[in-house]
Amino acid sequence: MSAARIHLFDTTLRDGAQTTGVDFSLDDKRSVAAMLDKLGIDYVEGGYPGANPLDTAFFAQKPTTQAKFAAFGMTKRAGRSAANDPGIAALLEAKADAIVFVAKAWDYHVHVALEIPLEDNLIGIAESVEAARAAGREVMLDCEHFFDGYKANPDYALSCARTAYEAGARWVVLCDTNGGTLPDEIGTIVAEVTKTIPGDHLGIHAHDDCGCAVANSLAAVEAGARQIQGTLNGLGERCGNANLVTLIGALKLKERYRERFAIGVGEAQLGELTHVSRALDEMLNRAPNRHAPFVGASAFTTKAGIHASAVLKDPRTYEHVPPEATGNLRKVLISDQGGKSNLVAELERIGVTLGRDDPRLGRVLDEVKEKEAQGYAFEGADASFFLLAKRIIGELPAYFEIERFTANVERRHNALGELVTFSEAIVKVKVGEEVLISVAESALGPVNALDLALRKDLGRYQSLIEGLRLVDYKVRVFQGGTDAVTRVLIESADETGARWTTVGVSANIIDASFQALVDSITYKLMREGATA
Amino acid sequence: MSAARIHLFDTTLRDGAQTTGVDFSLDDKRSVAAMLDKLGIDYVEGGYPGANPLDTAFFAQKPTTQAKFAAFGMTKRAGRSAANDPGIAALLEAKADAIVFVAKAWDYHVHVALEIPLEDNLIGIAESVEAARAAGREVMLDCEHFFDGYKANPDYALSCARTAYEAGARWVVLCDTNGGTLPDEIGTIVAEVTKTIPGDHLGIHAHDDCGCAVANSLAAVEAGARQIQGTLNGLGERCGNANLVTLIGALKLKERYRERFAIGVGEAQLGELTHVSRALDEMLNRAPNRHAPFVGASAFTTKAGIHASAVLKDPRTYEHVPPEATGNLRKVLISDQGGKSNLVAELERIGVTLGRDDPRLGRVLDEVKEKEAQGYAFEGADASFFLLAKRIIGELPAYFEIERFTANVERRHNALGELVTFSEAIVKVKVGEEVLISVAESALGPVNALDLALRKDLGRYQSLIEGLRLVDYKVRVFQGGTDAVTRVLIESADETGARWTTVGVSANIIDASFQALVDSITYKLMREGATA
Asked: Closest to B321 (Cβ–Cβ): which among A180, A254, A287?
């Protein structure tokens, strides 16, 4: 029996953007789309072009090469034709492979929210799907509140789905919009729907309001649906959407699924899953969930006790899947061979080749463990990780040395009686035998002033760092043991468009920031092939 | 048809204590037990008396009045009688109503971990259960790895369960110890087991390694099991145990369960669920999960967009259960697109009553929009939003005024040649006619030094802010129009356990931080009812 292909549809950039506290920039959106593309996701939904300038700009060009790029929008408004609907026009202008229309499938909503006759809603579905089909796009219909709608009025909910399918929609997606449906109901209802629409045209869109979004998605697939919608790390409004990271782990690693279902994520891509999950959190300045299935830092951690010795005897005694399959680590066994093979793969990924038997590998591992114990997180800071490895293997030139720095901030009334703030910094560096001292002021604060002073005069390296600029700065304070520790992540870019992230950790936010600044400059000098 | 009684068994203090980073003190254990007792939980498992002095001390007296207090331990060791087993002696000495034995139910584990004949394991189960029964205790058997065991050798797994049942165990608990089993398998296997052991003697103990612990527990109940084991907020080793908070929400509020199943948690107790969930996090100094089903701060939050207006028309349009049932709140996020009805509801939530026709409402809305255009985000900063509204409606006292501040950071070599960093800040404030100037130094950097200096002497308000402390500090830099803008969120707490978040925005990170600090102190003074 050949495995049925399950299509993964990611809505991190659309439904996930509804998460409280999450704001994607245009650059963020591009990075996430590229990451999803590389991971083997089938569809990347980018947003709602026409609804806001950011999404319209994001759809000016296609950010994926393998994955289909999908645009989300409403079906046409009642009382006008699809051709005269500005929302549909905006969707058709977007550089999208697929167009996802959302339409109400619960009669109660058509009455209360739309306040139009039930039939008009069906006409809106049919004409919108046809218009997008005529424009040569793949089309999907998200049936909002499908399950509540089905329970209230199965005939009407089904008509919405069937109308879209008959109008040429490739996929009809059954949405549990308020997240209130439970796995056994999902299974029963999806099975019923497959009698009208073939399962390989059905998708599931689940929310986690009952803590069952993953189980609901799996129940729909068991009942015949062949597309799953979800988000990275379960981002999404309220309790979030179905977590695609968990679903990928389950579909790829659990035998009962692996035998019957296939997804576009290959074994090597699966090995990047932990990295992808944490990189998204770093970008959003969110603390990764340590307890996340498959990818959480604690997902394979055994606290000393009755299980630990059994895990050491044979990991299969307490592990349902091998942690390294998703690029994660077993924590009781971090220093053993499993830890080393992970590290070899991680180093390989950032361009440092070290054999498993190289004695320097153990020293890199020890240093990483020590730094992580202090609060460093290299998951989101490849450039600092690269420098750490290069330093230990003796390939990091000593470009410059910091002698001292000072930074001052002053807020006071100026001569006009206005409250104004000034920042000034002095940095003294040694480049070879040359001692250079620079001062800079900034309206942006002491970190910016330090950055400007540091980059003002690096002697013979100065010309190499002219194109360097800081594009993002993130700070997180957390408990490291008994004391608070500050972790700073700095993202830099240069004239070639290259981007890299560095990390600094200290009790002092300025120290932590300065470390990350120094790493960024050092990384740029390595990129330029500078020698000490 | 009368509803079947489902018994809730909480293992927060035993399995939950295995969570990375969680350490309960004796007082913590007593508080949690009291909280669970009040909530209507049937069994409170307190720990493993005999295994460590803390648990032994906790079992010196019973901490619950309604709930049965349960002690956990291993079955007797092979090669000695139950009467001569020190572990069993410690269990029988504990002031517990119920004794929970754990035994291996997977033949592979009996071979690899115990290294004893399969039959000896059954003898251990029978004799241990009988010994505890003879001592007048209610007895349960946790069948470790039951589902893996059942898949490998169903006869042996069932013999373990049957042996306990026939020896007089009140409950046989089927444990998915590594969390690797999926809902449909759980349903099928539990249904099979009910042919040997009646469902009202069967319990389920699920872990979240596949993100399905809640669904697995529900699947077991649907298949006939009548006891659910779990933890508050899903605490537990690795990815955690089944989240009892979510399960209580689902069993009490979802119609399909409420009709058929009854639990010991009444309506009034359900109304305390949000409080219980957050109180546990407070005790453990963990940030509550905003996205937790039923009880998370964002569980009923709608970000402005296509859903917000429908929620305001009729909450049932987008809410699967009413938030107030668990003591939670509905929240519609303030935003650029937010209209007046959003704002009235939001102000009501934070305790500011303004009628729709009040002219000040428009001024609040304009101010919110202007601030959001500058980069403020009030969705995560209720306290700053409260102050903004109070200021506009003329109810914000002018407690103090900042005259000026300075902050300095210096990194240099000390007399020992070590690189060290110092921060120092001076703040000058005017409280009424009194001018106060304070200085403070900090190892944590200029923001901390400013915070310390600002709170060092606020004159007549000083005694009111003694209990104030900063618990979190977050910084995000983003593009606001053409220039970079820094947004700082500060979370504060006080001696009553109250928490609030304030926001500051500026091109300068120190200014932004200072604004958020000033807002936090002002909010605390308002809470204290201080007058200007």
From this structure: A180
Contact yes or no for A447 and B318 at CB 8 A: no
Res. A333 pLDDT band, cuts 50 70 90: very low
Question: Around Cβ A214, how many Cβ atoms within 10 Å?
Answer: 31
- The tokens describing A330, both together, are 């077993």
The domains located in chain A, with CATH, are 4-265 (3.20.20.70), 401-527 (3.30.160.270)
Please name the amino acid found at residue A478: F
Cα–Cα distances in angstroms (integers) from residue A342 to residues A281, A330, A345, B409, in the given order: 21, 10, 5, 40
**pTM of the predicted model as reported, rounded to 2 decimal places:** 0.77
The letter for the amino acid at A262 is A
What is the rounded average pLDDT for all residues in chain B?
Answer: 90
**Test the B interface: residue of A144, A291, A331, A401 with most B CBs within 10 Å:** A291
Beta carbons of A157 and A117 less than 8 angstroms apart:
no
CB environment B382-402: b (16+ within 10 A), e (fewer):
bbbbbbbbbebbeebeebbeb
Tokens encoding B267: 């309506």
pLDDT tens digits, residue range B154-166?
999 999 999 999 9
> How far are the Cα atoms of A3, A16, A294, B519 from residue A230, in angstroms, in the given order?
21, 9, 16, 38
Cα dihedral: B104, B106, B108, B113 (round 10): -20
Give the pLDDT score at A309.
58
Q: pLDDT tens for residues B271-280?
A: 999 989 988 8
Query: How many other CB atoms are there within 10 angstroms of residue B260's CB atom?
Result: 15
CA distances from A189 to A178, A204, B2 (A): 16, 11, 26
Distances (CA, A) of B416 to B410, B413, B419, B420, B421: 16, 7, 9, 10, 14
Share of chain B above pLDDT 70, in %: 94
Question: Cβ atoms within 10 A of the Cβ of B322, count?
Answer: 13
- Enter the tokens of residue B301: 């939050």
Q: Which of B469, B477, B513 to probe the A interface (max A CBs under 10 A)?
A: B477
Question: B222: nearest CA in chain A?
Answer: A184
Is 90 exceeded by the pLDDT of residue B51? no
Nearest CA in chain A to B216: A215
Strands (E), B160-313: 171-175, 202-205, 227-230, 261-262, 301-302
Residue A337 binned pLDDT confidence (cut-offs 50, 70, 90) = very low
Contacts of A254 in chain B (CB under 8 A): 180, 182, 210
Residues in chain B with CB shorter than 8 Å from the CB of A219 are 183-184
CB pairs under 8 A between A and B: 308
| C-beta neighbour count of A185 within 10 angstroms | 18
- The pLDDT assigned to B55 comes to 92
Other Cβ atoms closer than 10 A to B99: 26
Q: How confident is the model at residue A102 (pLDDT cuts 50, 70, 90)?
A: very high
Which ranges of A211-266 does DSSP label H, i.e. alpha helix? Answer: 213-222, 244-253, 255-258
Alpha-carbon distance A4 to A507, whole Å? 53
Please state at what angle helix A446-456 crosses helix A509-527, rounded to 10 degrees: 30
Instruction: Grade residue B309 by pLDDT with cuts at 50, 70 and 90.
Output: low
Distance CA A220, CA A7 (A): 13
d(CA A250, CA A330): 18
pLDDT, tens digit (0-9, with 9 covering 90-100), for B94-147:
999 999 999 999 999 999 888 899 999 999 999 999 999 999 999 999 999 999
Beta-sheet pairing, A138-144 with A43-47: unpaired
From A506, which residue of chain B is nearest by alpha-carbon distance? Answer: B444
Question: What's the ipTM?
Answer: 0.77
